[in-house]
Design goal:
Helices cover about 80% and strands about 0% of the residues. It has 6 helices and no strands. Helix 1 packs parallel to helix 4 and helix 3 runs antiparallel to helix 4. It starts with 7 loop residues before the first helix and ends with a helix. The relative contact order is 0.16.
């Protein structure tokens, strides 16, 4: 059955679709005009970090699918990816720092839920999510601080 051999490319394509919102709704002049903390990373770091993280996200989803099929872990992976895709729209498209904060909180919660549910299925998938969890945790704190500075 073809479904038994679903290529990793499908998962990478799903992640690529989520990543395109970052290109559709990029920072621009509005974001540049915001007050930001001194520890805000340089702009060049974001696409580099996200490229690596998106590859890891895709591989993690594929590993869980190969080990467990379409179960709760994969549903949580998909929900978290929807939150991920929506963040750029809220932050840069709608210019709603508050909505972006709510979104990144939902992303973080569903990431942790995915990791907890996926652990018995694929520890490798969970380990691939650890740097991502660290980055999103940092991004959430940054989002919060930008919201505070510009309220």
């Amino acid at each position: 059955m073809f479904a038994d051999y679903l290529p990793i490319g499908v998962f990478l394509a799903l992640v690529f679709c989520a990543a395109t919102t970052g290109a559709l709704f990029s920072p621009g002049p509005w974001y540049e005009s915001l007050a930001k903390p001194s520890w805000t990373p340089p702009n060049w770091l974001f696409p580099v970090a996200w490229t690596v993280l998106y590859l890891m996200i895709g591989i993690a989803g594929w590993l869980v699918w190969k080990a467990d099929g379409f179960g709760l872990a994969l549903v949580l992976w998909g929900v978290h990816l929807a939150f991920n895709a929506a963040w750029s729209y809220f932050m840069f498209g709608a210019q709603r720092i508050d909505y972006a904060m709510y979104d990144v909180t939902g992303m973080w919660v569903t990431m942790v839920a995915f990791m907890l549910v996926a652990w018995p299925v694929s520890q490798t998938a969970v380990l691939l999510f650890l740097p991502y969890l660290a980055w999103v945790s940092f991004a959430a704190v940054l989002n919060w601080r930008i919201w505070e500075l510009n309220a």
